[in-house]
Amino acid sequence: MWMIRRALAALSVAAAASAALRAAGGASLPRQSGGWRPLTGPDLT
Amino acid sequence: MSRVAILGTGAVGARVARHLLAVGGRSSFGAVDRVVLRDTDPERLLGARAVLESAADRVEVQHAPFPGDLDVDLVVVASPRGTQAPALEAALEAGRPVVLCGDGLAETVAIVRLAGEAAAARLPVVLGAGFAPGLSCVLAAHAGSWFDEVEEIHVAKAGAGGPACAVVHHRALSRLSYDWRGDQWVRRPGGSGRELCWFPEPVGPHDCFRAALPDPVLLHHAFPGVERITARMAATRRDRLTAPLPMLSPPPVEGGVGAVRVEVRGRRGDAQDVRVLGAAARPAVAAAAVAATAAEWVMADRVRVHGMASLAEMVEPVAFLENMADRGVVAEVFEGEHAVV
């Protein structure tokens, strides 16, 4: 019984921590290089 | 005198009519003389007619029950899911070329079963002439031309057009997806296989998931030697959670800006390489531009296949993409430092 309680407590703490991290997560990392450009030229390259 | 029938006057059909009736632009082979609009919903017909007010004398409206004969040069099928296969059968029976704008997997498979009849009649039937499939197929064909050997094609799309398209998207996430892998179809649950895809701006990055999409079926026919073909669509957690349920709220009349992204991998010389092409536009607007351009190509006899095929096989990609750019849908390429995003 003691083991089960301890496991449930650990799971609860892990879930709470992950939820807090997820909720407090900042904006996604902006792209560091590359990007989209229109296809140009006679062969659209 | 050229006449085109447009079955379905929703977000796509009405715009196809407007494109076909317009004159000008180097993409236009010449405006269509007359457009016949068919729809079962009188309100939609009135709305489409209002949009086409400037060319009202060249628009004919037909409400159900429809006349038996179809005295036109080409039929564009932009009607909701479940109605496209019967419409194609009727058009083939009447001996008319057809452009289909469907994006449902089950209906596409049902339509493919009529390929023999289209080939026997030597009638061009353009399958999947929309945003995705449609523009995605042309982008795949164009990207494929960079390679000596294409090994993988991965399609992703974000956004939906009109209400009928939104319903198809909603259901697609709860149905089985079909990916081509090696030499067989692999069935996977819709909503699985999360992958972050970076679409052209302003859409940007979205998590994309497997779904019951017809792109792999069409692309496998066009590229039978390619080892892996997959298709994903952008979805939120709520989309995936509610996919098995009926739509909780009515779909919007028109979706926002969407995008398609096609990643092609293969061998070029001695090196492995990857090309990522895409386009961003409101899906119904882009689908209408694709369907209208495909219709013009069929009427000008510029298509490569006189039978049923997707746009990947039907058209010369560079010229088609130039025509699309004339209509405001510009294809883009992702350039990175070989960083695939």
Topology:
The complex is a heterodimer of chains A (45) and B (341).
Chain A: H1 2-23, E1 35-38
Chain B: E1 3-7, H1 13-21, E2 34-39, H2 42-51, E3 59-63, E4 74-77, H3 84-93, E5 98-100, H4 105-112, H5 115-121, E6 125-127, H6 135-144, E7 149-158, H7 163-172, E8 176-181, E9 184-189, E10 195-198, E11 205-210, H8 215-222, E12 228-234, H9 237-242, E13 258-268, E14 271-281, H10 283-299, E15 308-310, H11 311-314, H12 317-326, E16 332-335
Parallel strand pairs in B: 1-2, 1-4, 2-3, 4-5, 5-6, 6-15, 7-12
Antiparallel strand pairs in B: 7-13, 8-9, 8-12, 10-11, 11-12, 13-14, 14-16
Share in helix of chain B? 25-40%
Structural class of chain A: mainly alpha
Which runs of chain A of at least 5 residues are low in confidence (pLDDT < 50)? none
What's the total number of strands of chain A? 1
Description:
The complex is a heterodimer of chains A (45) and B (341). Chain A is 49% helix and 9% strand. Chain A is built from 1 helix and 1 strand. Chain B is α/β, with parallel strands linked by helices and 341 residues long. Chain B folds into 2 domains: 163 residues, NAD(P)-binding Rossmann-like Domain (Rossmann fold, 3-Layer(aba) Sandwich), CATH 3.40.50.720; 158 residues, 2-Layer Sandwich (Dihydrodipicolinate Reductase, domain 2). Chains A and B meet through strand 1 of A and helix 12 and strand 16 of B. Strand 1 of chain A pairs antiparallel with strand 16 of chain B, so a sheet runs across the interface.
